[in-house]
Write a structure and sequence with these properties.
mainly alpha; 16 helices; transmembrane; transmembrane helix; DUF2157 domain-containing protein; membrane
Amino acid sequence: MLSRAQLDDAVTRQIIDAEQRDQLIALADGTLGARAERPQAQSLDENMRLIGGGNDVFVTIGVVMLGAGLLAALMTVIGDQRVTVFAIMAVFLWAVAEFVTRQRRMRLASTVIGLGFVFAVQAILTDLIIVNYDLAIPDNPLQLAAMRPQLGMAGTLFLGGIALSAALYFWRFRVPIMAGVIALCLTGLAFFYVTLFLYDGVTEGRLYMPALDDLPELLRNALYMPLISGLVIFAVGVAFDLHDRERVTVWSDCAFWLHVISAPLLVHPLFIMSTGQDVVFGEIEPGTGAMVMLAVLIAAFVYVALAIDRRSLLIPTLAYFGSLGIYYLINSAANQTGIPPFALILLVVGALIIMFGAGWQRIRSLIIGPTLPTSLLDKLPPIRVQSV
């Protein structure tokens, strides 16, 4: 029979999760029957597994205080050697993660430690790049053009270095938020390389310098970059979800962060492209056609979120549309009477949030179940409806 220490080691090695370990222990103790109903009740909701309990919060506070104290002490003693300071911080956070994350699997504390480690790495890379490439913010932004060779390598080292460190950290500790960090860095690299390609095209004569009148169309075309990046990140998140339909492994938690990141990258370009809003000055004056397209976008995102069982995709989407509605109401209140079109959108968004919060799985069963073929439903997260 496996001992408690062996089961804890299995959790550390990601063979089983903590909930499965507790169920095995309860089975050995003969108390599993009393707890059999609990996992089913919990599975009705999307388990983001961001906080492991009160002790997790307690340890997180301790880690923040300890790290802040060490950073303040190092800045006081050797503050002129920033690379050394943050190198020590990175080693310290890695050592803390060996206990808090590898041994105890504290979720919130592990997330905070991981983000602190990434921050320390980016601080090291920033200082090294500034010194080695002699980079400084010029007084005239046009002077940045003369720094093209240094900027190309510096940007690659900075974003690539952070992505590599996050990947190494994830390989060691399996902290899900590192998937989001990697996605953001790779998206930043994509934007960076496209910018360099366009700049080189202009300087080499392959592309012409856009005139001021061409700026709106240029910026509108630039929206394809975040749209493509968002689609790629969303596809990877869906792949993780399909790999773990029951949402019991770390890959499901990685998918949560990927959906959080992909939503804004998808929503904003689609909103601008479908409604014809002013991408340069951000003017929001939607007519009937724009409002209809906006409603279609909301409906599409709601359907996709229901299909893949991810409120983490829907929350940023509704927040974005709701923010647009508030922005429009504030800017139009002084010169309009009656009910502005976006007031209706706010009403719809607010009603959707309340409705989905109250009955997400039942809505999934009513909308997704009848509209998708069984072959596809068998690959998606199962629909769980609590019996009355």
